Amino acid sequence: xxxRLFNSYFxxxxxxxxxxxxxxxxxxxxxxxxxxxxxxxxxLENNNENYYEIKKQLTxxxxxxxxxxxxxxxxxxxxxxxxxxCLEDFQERLDxxxxxxxxxxxxxxxxxxxxxxxxxxxxxxxxxxxxxx
Length: 133
Prior knowledge:
Elements: H1 3-43, H2 51-100, H3 108-132
Helix pairs in contact: 1-2, 2-3
């Protein structure tokens, strides 16, 4: 596999994983903020003259955060699917290269051992992706 092709696979891996991390971080922040708002609503005093107005504003803010968070969760799922697809493409490419490299000049057993290690790692990552859903 050419160095350029190899690098392009890893650029795609990195791109989708970075996007996944960003979306996950924002989603976690939204969840924390939603929990803070819920706590604030619970601690509001009923005898406060603006109780219903404050509660209405906080509830509206919480609803908006929930909608945004839903969008981020969908983006997380999409990033994981794209990352998973990149991993599968890479595995297919490794299999293709393995078939081409059946050549006496190439250290084929060493390549196959390396390919199998990479496939094991990819399968572990795929399992994590599937479990996340």
